[in-house]
């Protein structure tokens, strides 16, 4: 999976191998909970194959707020960044192959790539893609009626 990124990100072999080793591969069946609502997110996931849904409990009712598919980065971003309880649950909806990275490893990697602006910016853009999508959804729900 990382071969496709190696061409985009020009790093020396030592750094490249170290960064790849921060990621852990896991294959999980459908209905695997990766993060429960109320837990603090310590992992960021990259979906190689499969699908993850983000949901929350509202008065005892399970509400799905978003789906993530292959080549998406997924986490409870606010929880992950601020060390606060997650407002959502992350759950696979089909057999899924994931790569995950611990928060401390990601922070170390981001600290080191500060010196490579294009790499840092591409990585951060991928992480915040979800936030951008939510903003579009939020604005459209205010601007437009369901009709």
Kindly describe this structure:
The chain has 147 residues and is α+β, with helices and mostly antiparallel strands. It contains 5 helices and 8 strands; from the N terminus they run H-H-E-E-E-E-E-E-H-E-E-H-H. The chain has helices at 3-6, 13-22, 77-82, 103-112, 117-143; strands at 23-28, 33-35, 43-49, 52-58, 61-68, 73-74, 89-92, 96-102. The strands form 2 sheets. A 4-stranded antiparallel sheet has the order 1-8-3-6. A 4-stranded antiparallel sheet has the order 2-7-4-5, with no helix packed on it. The chain starts with a helix and ends with a helix. The mean pLDDT is 85.
Q: Which descriptor suits the 3D outline?
A: globular
**Amount of helix:** 25-40%
Which whole number gives the mean pLDDT? 85
Strand order of the largest sheet: 1-8-3-6
Percent in strands: 25-35%
Low-confidence stretches: none
Report the C-alpha radius of gyration, rounded. 16 Å
Q: If helices are DSSP runs of H or I spanning 4 or more residues, what is the number of helices? A: 5
E-strand count: 8
Main β-sheet: number of strands, strand sense, barrel status? 4 strands, antiparallel
Helix and strand composition category: alpha+beta
Oligomer: single chain
């Amino acid at each position: 999976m990382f071969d496709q990124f190696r061409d985009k990100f020009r790093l020396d072999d030592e750094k490249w191998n170290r960064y790849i080793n921060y990621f852990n591969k896991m294959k999980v069946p459908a209905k695997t909970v990766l993060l429960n609502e109320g837990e603090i997110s310590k992992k960021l996931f990259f979906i190689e194959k499969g699908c993850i849904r983000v949901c929350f409990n509202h008065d005892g009712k399970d509400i799905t707020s978003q789906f993530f598919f292959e080549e998406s980065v997924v986490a409870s971003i606010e929880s992950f960044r601020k060390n606060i309880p997650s407002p959502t649950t992350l759950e696979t909806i089909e057999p899924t192959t994931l790569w995950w990275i611990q928060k401390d490893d990601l922070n170390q990697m981001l600290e080191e790539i500060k010196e490579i602006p294009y790499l840092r910016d591409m990585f951060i853009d991928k992480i915040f893609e979800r936030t951008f999508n939510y903003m579009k959804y939020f604005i459209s729900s205010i601007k437009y009626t369901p009709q």
